[in-house]
Amino acid sequence: MAEQLNSTRFVRVVIDRSIRRELDYSVPDALAEKVVVGSRVRVPFRERTLLATVVATLAETATAGIKPIEALLGEKPVLSSSLIDLARWMASYYCCPIETVMRSLLPQVIRKAEVGWRKQLFVRQLRVAEAEEMAKLQKRAPRQAELLEAISRLTEPMPAAELLRQTSLDNTTLRALVRRGFVELREEAVARDPHATEQFIADADLTMNAEQTAALQLIGTALENPETHPPILLHGVTGSGKTEVYLQAIRDTLARGKSAIVLVPEISLTPQTVERFKSRFAAQPDLVAVLHSHLSEGERHDEWHKLHCGRARIVIGARSAVFAPLENLGLIVVDEEHETSYKQEEAPRYHARDVAVVRAKMEKCVVVLGSATPSLESYTNATRGRYLLSALTQRVDQCQMPLIRVVDLRQERRKEKAAAILSEKLRTAIEDRLTKREQTILFLNRRGFSTSLLCSHCGKARYCPNCSVALTFHRTNARLSCHLCGHSAAVPKRCPECGEDALVYAGFGTEKVEANVAAIFPNAVVRRMDADSMTRKDSYRETLHAFRSGKIDILVGTQMIAKGLHFPNVTLVGIINADLALHLPDFRAGERTFQLLTQVAGRAGRGEAPGEVFVQTYTPFSPSIQFARHHDFAGYFEQELEFRERCNFPPATHAVLITVRSEHETRASFSAETLARRLKEALPNEYNIGDPAPAPLEKLHGSYRFHILIRGEAIVRLSRLIRETLDKLPFPEDVAVAVDVDPYQLL
Ligand code: ADP
Ligand code: ZN
Q1: Helix (H) / strand (E) containing 442
Q2: Which residue among 465, 490, 507 closes a domain?
Q3: Is any atom of ligand 1 closer than 6 Å to the C-beta of 243?
Q4: Where are the alpha helices (DSSP H) in 521-608?
Q5: Among the three residues 483, 507, 531, which one is the final residue of a domain in this structure?
Q6: N or C terminus of the chain: which is more exposed, having fewer CB within 10 Å?
Q7: Domain harbouring 95, CATH code
Q8: Does 629 score more than 50 pLDDT?
């Protein structure tokens, strides 16, 4: 036994299945030297074989009748031990089992064992034919001779398939050469590169202005002392050159032999963004990997492995790229850190920015959070000294901030009974741009044609049978559809409630804006960009390309067009209705409106001509609109924080939202009542437990939903107490409970 001391006898694993338990297995001697924390293994489990991840190695175990693991997959562990520590932290903070966390940590395609690199056969010459030998070959087997000559001209191994295509010779000929010992065929892995067809022209660092230099210096100091340095919040107005700062900070990180992660919201992960990173580091091919949801499985597998094996040392990706398997991590950048899409709305309900900060702390690396409109959470951390603030206050191009004009729709309505989609002021402004051959963006955060179908006789709207929202009319397919569950219905001729032929369409979405604008400006090219019009993979790329090259005069769209795009010729942005977000029953509604207005406004006037923004609203005096209008982040922050503190909402405290749902309304409400009562017994007084109440969106996907909101400070402890309480409660079969720590979705 003594000689076995250094090798692994037992392991604790998390299997790829929700059983809320970690399991111990023994390690056969043959694998004892190879199995480590983070290894993927195959284990027997209840008459079956399942895949699992090793989370700990043990010297002994108390488990009786322990079984051995069956196999080790891959030579290198898929997860580092620090990523496993991160998984444990997430499980305890976000109140969910570690196997659920593992689902996010390892992409699906990596968890499936059988997928591998795409293999190709490469041809390489082994031996040169003597002159005599060659002459003989030419006589007896001319095709072999021809192929051998072609191979001898190769400067490096070539894929066999390509060689045979080029020479128009066949596989039998090639095999004969292998038998004769002239050439060798070797299987080699080739990566599927999602950007293989694109050429990236290397570009150099720009000369930075004083503010950029200061920001980079601060990051440089942090890179010197990563153990002790707090996170850096880079507050830079749109167009202030934050990306340039990231690029040069990454260069400095690589120079120290370290790697970097750049998180970008999915919606801003455009070809344009990727190109900026790929081009800057083009001198070394494969240095930059990309991870996002539009990759094919094969591409995702290969990009992930490029990072895992260390060939790629920079990853640019959406939310889950925070788990990228990079070693020796030096820097994590979270761009647009305020973006709510960093929050995952299914378990594990983590926030990638917060996970980035924790990962950075665990791996002693620098973290930079960047935004033009920092979240209240991050800015508060900066004002309290937990983060260091660095500010870019000027646009790089010296352009003025766009002029924001607020259009009071109440007055417009008084002028023309029914308010038009475009106010007269906005219409005139568009006209002016068309004459000057400048471009316009019109923004509305609502898809479809009409937002509801109302009966003018009985007043009832057509509602989704599964959700408590009205159905939206889409003209393209002439159907009603639910934006929450996808339910779709034909348009009735008469009101199904009262039978009258009195149905009218009310409200409008992007489809109607597009139609309306096209009718007013028949000579302009109008295009729409939203989730409905962008269903094909390439349509997004195509539309952006057409817009950039000036083939589109007016682009109508949802938030898809609000983020991170540069169009120098756009001098006008119209926000069709700024009130949409403002009236949601959500304490962050004001914050979202402020962010949205600022971001959308940032699209205007990025070139030579100054930009102009028209904000149409029924609430022109709301603080979010007024502060955004004056580009006054500080003023906005102060008043918003005061509101949050007064009402005890985040960031003044932490919140946990528990949703109890069931297809049976009474079971849902009864279970919520019971749970709230038990929580009140179990939780100490420092936690404030709200009464259970129907969710604002009471019915969703056919389920009735009730909310319990808990507020307090010590989250890990709260999570544990909630988990214990839930485990003790026997809920009816059809009642589901979701726990959301630091929730963003309060509907
Ligand atoms: P942000 O990310 O803050 O919105 P970007 O980094 O995208 O800003 O910069 C906006 C534009 O200004 C980009 O086209 C970028 O290439 C350019 N730019 C950034 N820094 C400089 C600089 N120091 N000198 C010249 N151009 C710059
Ligand atoms: Zn629905």
Answers
A1: strand 439-443
A2: 507
A3: yes
A4: 539-548, 589-601
A5: 507
A6: N
A7: 3.40.1440.60
A8: yes
Written as one letter, the residue type at 689 is I
Q: Count H helices, E strands: the chain? A: 22, 31
Closest CA to 703 of 742, 655, 671, 656: 671
pLDDT tens digits along 397-446: 777 778 899 999 888 877 766 667 899 999 999 999 999 999 999 999 88
Residue 146 located in a structural domain: yes
3-state secondary structure of 365: coil
Indicate whether 41 and 68 sit together in one domain. yes
Nearest one of 142, 147, 141, 138 to 182, comparing CA atoms: 147
Residue 551 sits in the same domain as residue 614: yes
∠ CA(507), CA(604), CA(564), 5° rounding?
85
Q: Based on the structure, what is the number of domains in the chain? A: 6
Write out the two tokens for 21. 């338990």
Distances (CA, A) of 700 to 292, 483, 662: 28, 11, 10
238 lines ligand 1 (CB under 6 A): yes
Mean pLDDT in residue range 143-156: 87
Tell me whether residue 747 is in a domain: no
Which ligand is closest to the CA of 237, given by its number?
A: 1
Q: Are residues 135 and 251 in the same domain?
A: no
Q: For residue 320, give its domain range.
A: 210-396
206 lines ligand 1 (CB under 6 A): yes
Q: Is 372 helix (H, G, I), strand (E, B) or coil?
A: coil
Residues 665 and 540 in one domain: no
Distance CA 20, CA 97 (A): 6
**Tokens describing residue 522:** 């028949």
Specify whether 303 is located in the same domain as 373.
Answer: yes
What beta strand segments (E) does 19-163 contain? Answer: 23-26, 40-45, 48-58, 71-73, 118-125, 158-159
Does residue 542 sit in the same domain as residue 594?
A: yes
Within a domain: 704? yes
Q: What is the pTM of this model?
A: 0.85
The beta-strand segments (E) located in 313-383 are 314-317, 329-335, 366-371
pLDDT, tens only, 288-311: 999 988 888 888 888 999 999 899
Stated length of the chain: 747
Same domain, 137 and 92: no
In ligand 1, the atom with minimum distance to the C-alpha of 245 is: 6
Asked whether residue 645 is domain-assigned, the answer is: no
Closest ligand relative to 484 C-alpha: 2
Tokens in use for 50?
A: 């399942």
Coil, helix or strand at residue 205: coil
Q: What is the whole-number distance in angstroms between the Cα of residue 41 and the centre of ligand 2?
A: 42
SS (H, E, C) 235-286: EECCCCCHHHHHHHHHHHHHHCCCEEEEECCHHHCCHHHHHHHHHHCCCCCC
Residue 147: alpha-carbon gap to chain centroid: 50
Pocket test for ligand 1, best of 209, 212, 243, 275 (most atoms within 8 A of CB): 243
Given this model, what pLDDT does residue 564 score? 55
* CA–centroid distance, residue 462 to ligand 2 (Å): 11
444 and 387 in one domain? no
